[in-house]
Design goal:
By secondary structure, the chain is an alpha/beta fold. The chain contains 14 helices and 8 strands. An 8-stranded parallel beta barrel has the order 1-2-3-4-5-6-7-8, surrounded by 8 helices. Helix 2 runs parallel beside helix 3 and helix 6 packs across helix 7. The structure holds ligand LKJZXN5G and manganese (II) ion. The site of ligand LKJZXN5G has 13 residues, from loops. The ligand CC[C@H](O)CC(=O)C(=O)O binds next to loops. It catalyses: (S)-4-hydroxy-2-oxohexanoate = propanal + pyruvate; (S)-4-hydroxy-2-oxopentanoate = acetaldehyde + pyruvate. GO terms for molecular function: 2-isopropylmalate synthase activity; 4-hydroxy-2-oxovalerate aldolase activity; manganese ion binding. It comes from Brevibacillus panacihumi W25. This is 4-hydroxy-2-oxovalerate aldolase.
């Protein structure tokens, strides 16, 4: 593979954070320990652990965690011998206090996540993370919703606040390979910091998109073992590693150990196969936040509305992360309209 960056590629495994959405934030300490131990043993670079919506996400609105995420972070930190521990924080949900606590428990990298057009709200969190001595990464979510110039402008803001890398985050799994190429290439030309890419597989192009991102110069790459992430999941880590190895890119992560972790440790955690069903396909097709799927399915059951219609409507209304309460409102409105035959 011809890469446009000569920096090493670093993989962040997100099944214990993005995958938290899939298990409705019900991870146990034992599950987190087992997964972390297996990933660490394989040589994973970074392992992210937090509530699915980041630090402080355990609320009625986003879903309560079974176990306090700080306990999960502490457990994961104790299992990390080689891997570094990462956390995610969304300004407005997670506070400086939680970030400090996570740092104290052993988290050494933080991704500060904002909607793609709202990078300005990340300034304080980025600067606090830098003061705490953490590797600090910006995470621009729903990257398909902004034109390339806007994405570049927002990434530059994060860089100016002190971010050491900025991610193009395809939260909805809506980006197509040529759109990933345009975005990563524009960022490479405009930024002096590393570029990352986080995919969702709702249109079945997560691995392909990730390869394009790497070719264009992205060096921070996310994946989830067995696709254990919101919607249809993320770039499947063990598959990506095998494909990269076949392309002559070896990242020092043991592929057999990753396959075994996928089969024996993560596989049994899946509540259902992470295939691309009609719900996850609609997410990518409509460009809706992947973590909305479970909420839309629940709302659909409650109000007897097809979850696909709810997701399409959310897409039309450009509902973004943090507006989860709109899902019930939309379902209730649609149910009323159905009853009245409107
Ligand atoms: C709400 C946080 C979100 O799950 C972050 C993420 O992984 C994404 O936007 O894809
Ligand atoms: Mn995600």
């Amino acid at each position: 593979m011809k890469r446009k960056s000569d920096k090493p590629i670093k993989i962040t495994e997100v099944c214990l954070r993005d995958g938290s959405h899939v298990v409705a934030h019900q991870y146990t300490e034992e599950q987190v320990r087992n997964v972390t131990r297996a990933l660490d043993d394989a040589g994973m670079h970074y392992i992210e652990v937090s509530h699915g919506d980041g630090l402080g996400g355990s609320t009625l609105q986003y879903g309560r965690s079974l176990v306090d995420e700080m306990k999960l972070i502490e457990a994961a930190a104790q299992e990390c011998k080689r891997s570094k521990l990462a956390v995610l924080v969304l300004p407005g949900i997670g506070t400086a206090a939680e970030l400090k606590q996570a740092r104290g428990l052993g988290a050494s990298l933080v991704r500060v996540a904002t909607h793609v057009t709202e990078a300005d709200v990340s300034a304080q969190h980025i600067s606090i993370a830098r003061e705490l001595g953490m590797e600090t990464v910006g995470f621009l979510m729903m990257a398909h919703m902004a034109p390339v110039e806007k994405l570049v402008e927002q990434a530059k803001l994060m860089e100016s606040y002190g971010a050491e890398a900025v991610y193009v985050t395809d939260s909805a799994g809506a980006l197509l390979p040529h759109e990933v190429r345009e975005r990563i290439s524009a960022l490479r030309e405009s930024l002096d910091i590393e570029i990352g890419f986080h995919a969702h597989n709702n249109l079945s192009v997560a691995v392909a998109n990730t390869l394009v991102a790497i070719e264009e110069g992205a060096t921070r790459i996310d994946g989830s073992v067995r696709c254990l992430g919101a919607g249809a999941g993320n770039t499947q880590t063990e598959v990506l590693l095998a494909v990269l190895d076949r392309m002559g890119v070896n990242l020092g992560i043991d592929i057999y150990k990753m396959m075994d972790a996928a089969e024996n440790v993560v596989g049994p955690l899946l509540p259902r196969p992470q295939d691309i069903n009609r719900g996850s396909l609609v997410l990518g097709y409509a460009g809706v936040y992947s973590s909305f799927l479970l909420h839309a399915e629940r709302a659909g059951k409650r109000y007897n509305v097809d979850p696909r219609d709810i997701l399409i409507e959310l897409g039309k209304r450009k509902v973004v992360g943090g507006q989860e309460d709109m899902i019930l409102d939309v379902a209730a409105e649609m149910s009323k309209a159905q009853r009245l035959g409107v």
